Amino acid sequence: MVHEAFWQPTHLVYDQAADSDPLRERLEDRFIELVCPHRENRTKPRTQDGRKLRRYRHRWQIERSMSWLQRFKRLVVRYEYHADLFLGFVQLACLFTILQRF
Description:
Elements: E1 11-13, H1 21-29, E2 33-35, H2 59-69, H3 73-77, H4 83-101
Parallel strand pairs: 1-2
């Protein structure tokens, strides 16, 4: 079921592999800004300065949280057909992860 009113992201934080001008242009058409460090072998001028890369510094927190959720095989394989059941298991996995950390 697709809802017409959905949340539109404003920034996409990605790694250096996504540093390409065509991708940046496609995302700009959708009003999304790509935040990633430029590759070392980039031939064109840089499109962003270091201030926007502050968002990139916190990317490790997302990566860490995703790795915590990867411990639950039911989420990795996705046995559930219905999205609401899958969401329930994601919330349950988050609860178990939080309880384990404290």
